[in-house]
């Protein structure tokens, strides 16, 4: 029998967090369905706003749509918990999105793509579980030290993203060429050492290449308390993405997975789509006008494409202009299934 997952005041039947996936993949429907089936549901906060409205009022438009999405998820899940939000530190409206999510009564916040050093300040005394995402013991130690010193607070759980994850990666290109040097088992040892230094004993979740009950059991055996699942959940009816894009994932093979430099400033693992082929060839197809400055780390004059537009293209099924962030376990996405089919495999 799989253990439950307890984080701060929250508990689920299964030790599974549905990964926040932008843009609009991890939406109200996917998050609420996950909660209804016994896991942690996460809304990705990035890129939700209407593109035209965002051009003139990015911050308020982003908050408005996120709050709507939270309400929608609460309705779909009959107000059941735990509903969380994924908020990337690299977002230019990071503080505003955190504050809006807390005001909307969110249960947990997952925060990576940078070190969430000021997160406790923006959350204040609200009963919200704080879950940083890290890819090294060193990064965790920096967070533990800063939170201890400034806020006398510890994380409520920790997500360790391994080198085989989908999306942005907290590793150097050299490490990614040798993923065995920073595998999830090695990372867990580092992370536990850092936690011990700060007397921190909270659940630690593994992320990267998890697509089955066997994978979850393997992670539990290693000493993790649960997992976060991204790529595999893209191939579900509930994921927020046009069917054409979901089928692109289903038809892709492991050899189609490559790593490129993202406008976020980190390496990003993606499928070799038409846009990625153009970027790899060094073609700068069009001079794009930055619709709204969504990332602090992006220089629109230098990057070869706009990641916000590319991810919206993925969401809408515009294959030629899309970017398909994917983990190494793409071969496990064999068909588009109802999310329930996966959760049923977790039952005893
Ligand atoms: C399409 C896609 C979008 C993602 N978007 C985000 C995001 O908005 N914020 C974030 O912190 N991580 C994001 N990630 C990373 C996931 O949260 C998760 O950690 C990762 O997908 C786990 O690895 P897996 O894909 O092998 O399961 C994304 C991943 C994918 C595949």
Can you walk through the features of this model?
It is a single chain. It contains 13 helices and 13 strands. The chain has 348 residues and is α/β, with parallel strands linked by helices. The chain folds into two domains: 249 residues, Alpha-Beta Barrel (TIM Barrel), CATH 3.20.20.70; 87 residues, no CATH class. The strands form three sheets. The protein has an eight-stranded parallel beta sheet. Strands 9-13-12 form a three-stranded antiparallel beta sheet, covered by helices on one side. Strands 1-2 form a two-stranded antiparallel ribbon. Helix 2 links the parallel strand 4 and strand 5. The mean pLDDT is 96.
What's the structural blueprint in terms of helices and strands?
Elements: E1 5-7, E2 10-12, E3 16-18, H1 28-37, E4 41-44, H2 51-76, E5 83-86, H3 94-103, E6 108-111, H4 119-123, E7 129-134, H5 137-151, E8 158-161, E9 167-168, H6 173-177, H7 184-197, E10 204-207, H8 213-222, E11 226-229, H9 231-234, H10 243-251, E12 257-261, E13 267-271, H11 274-280, H12 307-316, H13 339-344
Parallel strand pairs: 3-11, 4-5, 5-6, 6-7, 7-8, 8-10, 10-11
Antiparallel strand pairs: 1-2, 9-13, 12-13
Helix pairs in contact: 1-2, 2-3, 5-7
Residues 19-22, 25, 44, 46, 86, 88, 112-113, 133, 161, 165-167, 207-210, 228-232, 325-327, 329 line the site of flavin mononucleotide.
């Amino acid at each position: 029998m799989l253990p439950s997952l307890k984080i701060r005041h929250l508990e689920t039947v299964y030790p599974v967090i549905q990964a926040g996936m932008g843009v609009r993949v991890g939406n109200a429907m996917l998050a609420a369905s996950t909660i209804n089936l016994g896991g942690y549901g996460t809304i990705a906060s990035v890129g939700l706003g209407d593109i035209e409205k965002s051009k003139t009022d990015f911050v308020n438009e982003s908050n408005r749509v996120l709050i709507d999405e939270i309400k929608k998820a609460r309705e779909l899940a009959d107000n059941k918990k735990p509903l969380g939000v994924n908020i990337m530190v690299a977002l230019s409206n990071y503080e505003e999105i955190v504050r809006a999510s807390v005001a909307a009564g969110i249960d947990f916040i997952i925060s990576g793509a940078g070190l969430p050093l000021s997160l406790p300040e923006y959350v204040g005394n609200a009963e919200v579980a704080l879950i940083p995402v890290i890819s090294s013991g060193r990064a965790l130690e920096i967070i533990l030290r800063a939170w201890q010193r400034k806020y006398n607070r510890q994380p409520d759980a920790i997500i360790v993203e391994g080198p085989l994850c989908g999306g942005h990666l907290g590793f150097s290109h050299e490490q990614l060429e040798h993923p065995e040097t920073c595998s999830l088992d090695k990372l867990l040892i580092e992370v536990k050492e850092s936690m011990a230094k700060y007397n921190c004993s909270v659940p630690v979740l593994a992320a990267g290449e998890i697509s089955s009950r066997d994978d979850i059991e393997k992670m539990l055996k290693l000493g993790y308390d649960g997992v976060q699942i991204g790529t595999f959940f893209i191939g579900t009816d509930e994921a927020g993405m046009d069917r054409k894009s979901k089928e692109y994932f289903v038809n892709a093979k492991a050899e189609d997975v490559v790593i490129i430099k993202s406008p976020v400033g980190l390496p990003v693992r993606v499928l070799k789509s038409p846009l990625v082929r153009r970027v790899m060839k060094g073609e700068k197809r069009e001079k794009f006008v930055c619709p709204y400055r969504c990332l602090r780390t992006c220089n629109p004059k230098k990057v070869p494409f706009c990641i916000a537009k590319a991810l919206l293209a993925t969401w809408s099924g515009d294959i030629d202009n899309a970017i398909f962030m994917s983990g190494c376990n793409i071969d496990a996405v064999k068909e588009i299934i109802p999310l329930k089919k996966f959760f049923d495999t977790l039952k005893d």
